[in-house]
Amino acid sequence: MSVSRTHAAIDVPTATRAQPPGWRDPRLWIGIAIVAVSIIAGARILGAADDSVSVWAAARDVAPGDTVGVDDLVSTSVRFGESTDAARYLLTSSPLPDDLTLVRALGEGELVPAAALGSGDEADTVIVSLAFPHELIPTNIGTGSLIELLVIPADGASDDKRGSIEPTTVLSDVVVIDAPSAADSLGSVSRGRQLVLGIPETDSDALAEILSASEDERVRVLVRG
Do both 110 and 161 map to the same domain? Predict the structure, then answer.
């Protein structure tokens, strides 16, 4: 006895080889654009994360009149809120002269203000503290500011003449060594706000006039820049 078997034909799909996307495929360009944007964004993030500036700080306590060299300083990275603030300090990227002399004291670890340093020829600086009524101090004054000191003539100091007589500039380019806040100024309630100024000894005559005029509040302060 014989048995015959038949098999149904099975349709097998023809295999096709996947083709890589061509240069005109928009998906390729979209992918390239995404990668490029990611690289640029990452570079900007890294750059913003390292916007600190290297400035000099005192390695030890130093007194006015001391000569300052590299051995007396340490490099410190600081991130300033405003880029212009960095100009007030001694940057490590700038050459350090050999004859730098302090005109004010610095504590260990304190950043070195540019206004605290002078050359050997400028060592004879008189440091004087003057008190001013709060309303006569410009709000933008601070350590390192350059100011002019003006004096109202004694015959124009009365209330009825004070507004009609122009003050005279007595000292220019005076460096503010320290500008304590009103709360920190000694005797701030009765004497007003204090400013610590560095005045060249060669201007001793002008300094005498300033000190005399400050007794009856005839000194005015003008911030430059």
Answer: no
Is the whole model's pTM more than 0.90, yes or no?
no
Q: Which residue has the higher pLDDT, 211 or 176?
A: 211
Q: Specify the 3-state DSSP secondary structure of 146.
A: strand
Please check whether residue 201 lies inside any domain of the structure: yes
What average pLDDT does the chain have? 76
Beta strands in the chain (DSSP E): 53-58, 73-78, 101-102, 117-118, 125-132, 146-151, 168-178, 193-200, 219-223
Domain check: are 106 and 155 in the same one?
no
State the residue range of the domain holding 94: 51-121
Is 72 in contact with 59 (CB distance < 8 Å)?
yes
pLDDT at residue 187 above 50?
Answer: no
- 82 and 110 co-located in one domain: yes
Nearest partner of 77 among 46, 42, 53, 41, judged by Cα: 53
